[in-house]
Amino acid sequence: MNGLQLLGTGRCLPSRRVTNEDFARTLDTSDAWITERTGIRQRYFCAEGETAVSLAVGAARQALEDAGVQPGQVGLCIAATFTADRRTPALACEVQAALGLPQTTLCLDINAACTGFVAALETARCLLLGGQLAGPYALVLGAEKISSLLDFSDRSTCVLFGDGAGAAVVRLDPQAPWAAVFGTRGDGQVLHGGGPEDPYLAMDGRAVFRFAVETVPVCIRAVLDKAGLTLDAVDHLVLHQANSRIIHSIAKKLEQAPARFYENMQRYGNTSAASIPIALDEMRRAGQLCPGQTVLCAGFGAGLTWGGVLLRA
Ligand code: COA
Question: Does domain 1-313 have CATH number 3.40.47.10?
Fold first, then answer.
């Protein structure tokens, strides 16, 4: 079915760990409020000198090493991000320079917010299938420095997010199952930020919650239908790590045990496009994600956007 095989993963978190208790010292909030509503207990923020690029490079280096792939074999470097350090050049180009990827590598960023990594996987698959890339491997990154968009006096948003990067090395696998489903509900109000009039991230939390719980189960079922698979044929469900309650509500709608859905937002908060590759890396390094297994990844977020794809480990 010409799907993607996951050959290696990596992750990089910045050095400044901030717990819920740390926030409670400067904001009218508490560990109990944040934990009960979101599952998040701590997150990492960039310290002086740490950037979206430095995190992406750290994660990418690990992923190449894990995959046993040389920089010279990479035909595509694609970074999903909505918080690149600069508007240009693309973050992926700075990764190319830092890792010594060949000059024949196509490097580009995409912004689909928290759906970004899933969209980048589908983009990578299409480009690999197109046959014009100079190498058979794609380096797919999710890298975010969301702290640059946070208002640290707004308790309703700043406690939810974190910085980080995750990376995956993939190649085409004719035997791997594939299906991809995407959607967009253009809405500039529900979740937005980074513009001249709205420099900080702002959102209607309840509307985002409702949107995710309504859309993601339908998306997951559509991916499975397209691939001719049932949920039982999927070994792991790796969703965007925004909120534990969102994942549990999605699990309930799909009549699945919550334990089937990987969760790590307690350690990292919501790292947007980086959350799924960070989760894949944790699972792989813990021996939870084994060769030959099938993973369904689904993202959702600003746009509003959503998407789901399959991966063969
Ligand atoms: N600590 C304590 N109280 C807080 C708080 C915080 N960090 N943030 C908000 N509150 C307060 C609100 O001001 C409100 O107070 P009020 O009733 O006096 O006005 C109260 O808590 C309830 O707020 P509400 O927004 O109704 O809470 P909620 O139960 O919906 O939970 C979210 C809020 C943000 C945790 C929840 O809506 C959510 O997780 N939404 C999804 C957000 C998300 O994941 N976005 C990214 C998706 S990619």
Answer: yes
Quick check: 143 and 59 in contact, CB under 8 A? yes
Mean per-residue pLDDT of the chain: 97
Three-state SS at 152: coil
Write down the domain spans for the chain. Answer: 1-313
Using the predicted structure, report yes or no on whether residue 1 has a pLDDT greater than 90.
no
Look at ligand 1, atom 10, and give the residue with the nearest C-alpha. 156
**Tens digit of each residue's pLDDT (9 = 90 or more) over 245-255:** 999 999 999 99
pLDDT of amino acid 89: 98
- The CB-side HSE value for 244 (13 A sphere, CA atoms) comes to 17
Identify any residues that bridge with 43 across adjacent strands, giving them in sequence order.
18
Is 114 designated active site?
Answer: yes
**Predicted confidence (pLDDT) per residue in 47-83, tens digit:** 999 999 999 999 999 999 999 999 999 999 999 999 9
Beta-carbon count within 10 A of 286 CB: 8
CA of 136 to the centre of ligand 1 (A): 45
| Residue partners of 126: CB distance under 8 A and separation at least 6 | none
Nearest to 206 by CA among 57, 54, 37: 37
Active-site annotation holds for 192: no
- Encoding tokens for residue 176? 């791997």
The model's pTM is 0.98
